[in-house]
Design a protein that fits this description.
Number of strands: 8
Largest sheet: 8 strands, parallel, barrel
Strand content: 5-15%
Order of helices and strands: HHHEHEHEHEHEHEHEHEHH
CATH architecture of the largest domain: Alpha-Beta Barrel
Helix content: 40-55%
Structural class: alpha/beta
Strand order of the largest sheet: 1-2-3-4-5-6-7-8
Number of domains: 2
Length: 299
């Protein structure tokens, strides 16, 4: 991020939450489960599927982690009740990974079990680098018992292609994305094209070994290249989907949908919307600039 964009994002962080909330609505379905259900119904009506996530991470007590698990139980029940075409995404730190890895694994197991009873699927999100290996370790253990669980890999990490080689051995269902956390150059590619190249190498390796891939990107270049790889390798439509964030590059979302490819939208909701929204602004500082201009009534 260039210095001007960094300054703009830092300025937005200083604004009252009530002001940021006005613009956060673009990226977050709302504060409640009902808000999430409403948005997914609208997406489904347009032939678009979803993955739903309850916002909140880095909880501090086992009690908070258990409460998050119960909220996911309610979400799974709502998906079933409303006949939504949606699976769920979970963040391990929201389920206590930072305080007790074994307890976190227990809670994730309970969520996967509950999802299986509804014939649903659980995506384990990937967070910043201190949690990469333990998240993969938990997934690998769970994958030996369950077929309704997948993981996320981030192409900006230098280790990702090696992780793909290992995870392909157990038949992994992936979400492949670039990654948005700020990491040291020692472990993460910094060049835009480097990240893109590693994304495409990882995608090809996933496909070559017969894995299902959620191609998660808003990058027009990566979408075009993914189309090319799918066509050249004759990848059947039941082996991949595209994935995007709610409220981001909707024109690309609609094009992928109209091109006949499955598209899944990540729909977050919940009271802990602020940290998520700030990450979205850091990823897309043009929106932060729009907020800044609006505050000062620039034309």
């Amino acid at each position: 991020m260039n210095p001007l964009n960094m300054a703009i994002v830092q300025f937005v962080k200083l604004l009252p939450k009530s002001v940021v909330h006005i613009f956060a609505k673009k990226y977050v379905a709302g504060d409640t489960l009902n808000d999430g259900v409403r948005v997914v119904k609208e997406l489904n009506a347009n032939g678009i599927v979803a993955t739903m996530d309850i916002l909140g991470e880095s909880i501090k007590t086992r009690g908070e982690a258990s409460e998050t698990k119960e909220q996911y139980f309610e979400l799974l029940e709502a998906i079933d009740k409303h006949k939504l075409d949606s699976n769920i995404s979970i963040k391990p730190t929201a389920l206590g990974l930072a305080i007790d890895a074994d307890y976190c694994k227990e809670l994730i197991t309970e969520i996967i079990e509950r999802a299986k009873s509804y014939n649903n699927f659980v995506r384990i999100d990937m967070e910043d680098s201190p949690f990469t290996q333990i998240t993969i370790d938990i997934f690998k253990e769970l994958r030996t018992k369950y077929d309704n669980v997948g993981i996320v890999l981030q192409s900006y990490l230098r280790r990702t292609l090696d992780d793909v080689v290992e995870l392909n051995k157990i038949g992994t269902n992936y979400r492949l994305c670039k990654g948005i956390y700020i990491e040291p150059e020692k472990i993460a590619f910094k060049g835009r094209q480097e990240v893109r190249d590693n994304f495409l190498k990882s995608l090809e390796k996933m496909f070559d070994d017969g894995n299902y891939v959620g191609i998660a990107t808003h990058d027009d270049y990566l979408i075009k290249e993914s189309y090319r790889i799918i066509e050249e390798k004759k990848i059947p439509k039941n082996k991949y989907e595209f994935q995007m964030l709610y409220g981001v590059t909707e024109h690309l979302r609609d094009k992928i949908n109209s091109d006949g490819h499955k598209i899944r939208i990540y729909v977050p909701y919940g009271e802990h919307w602020y940290a998520y929204s700030i990450r979205r602004l850091q990823e897309n500082p043009q929106v932060a600039w729009y907020i800044t201009k609006s505050i000062f009534s620039f034309k």
